[in-house]
Amino acid sequence: MVPILLSLVIMTIAFSIERYLTISKASGKTNVNAFIAKIRAHLRSNNIDAAIRECDTQRGSVANVVKSTLFRYKEMEAATHMDVDQRILAIQQEVEESTNLELPMLEKNLVVLATMGSVSTLVALFGTVLGMIRAFAALGAGGAPDSSELATGISEALINTALGIGNAAVAIVMYNVFTTKIDKITYAIDEASYSIVQTFAEKYK
User: Fold this and answer.
1) Among positive and negative, which fits the CA dihedral 88, 90, 93, 97?
2) Residue 142 — pLDDT band, cuts 50, 70, 90?
3) With 90 as the cut, is the pLDDT of residue 131 above it?
4) How confident is the model at residue 161 (pLDDT cuts 50, 70, 90)?
5) Among residues of the chain, what percentage have pLDDT more than 70?
């Protein structure tokens, strides 16, 4: 079972690195809170084009949603044939659609890490049982027990236990870290989008 557990360890490391790079890129080039502050400042000065340029500079998932929402904001400013509530609703729908496009990319492969947290422990337990069976088989053999077989069985059981529990612990920690980062990104998207909608509502109501 050791080769299987080593494969699981490699998978955990690989997916952790992949998620780290992806989520870091999704946050954008600069601090998200600083980016939101700049967007709010541009909105207060009614400089939508500058806010869009800020999104091009920032990049990432937050900037993508904000940029898409700002484009809809500009469209709704020109849509004088619609009443204000309809225009606000259109902006809110754009926020939801853009967010739904970005979130799957952020959450992709997290299920693998969650699975590693449970599967690694079960595989380790299975390997431990096999190792103990081997150790007791050496004890139960006729005549003097084979000390080398006994030691090999116990060693195999302990190695399986260490690898499985260690990998499960790393997988669970990384899953929680990435989930927290995604929650922060989602909160930043909600905060920026709310500011855009409120600015529009205050301007036209």
Assistant:
1) negative
2) low
3) no
4) confident
5) 94
Q: Which of 2-6, 26-30, 68-72 has the highest mean pLDDT?
A: 68-72
pLDDT at 143: 55
Determine the residue type at 104.
Answer: P
Tell me how far apart the alpha carbons of residues 61 and 103 are, in angstroms, rounded to a whole number.
Answer: 8
Domain positions in the chain: 2-204
59: left (phi over 0), alpha (psi -120 to 50) or beta: left
Nearest partner of 47 among 203, 205, 152, judged by Cα? 203
More confident residue, 132 or 194: 194
C-alpha 2 chain-centroid distance: 29
Q: How many Å apart are CA 88 and CA 72, to the nearest integer?
A: 10
How many C-alpha atoms does 140 have within 13 Å on its Cβ side? 7
8 Å CB contact between 59 and 28: yes
* DSSP secondary structure code for residue 80 in this structure: T
Distances (CA, A) of 179 to 2, 96, 153, 172, 173: 29, 20, 39, 10, 10
Q: Per residue in 152-185, is it b (16+ CB within 10 Å) or e — as a string?
A: ebbebbebbbebbeebbebbbebbeebbebbeeb
The DSSP code for 45 is T
Is the pLDDT confidence value at 147 over 80?
no
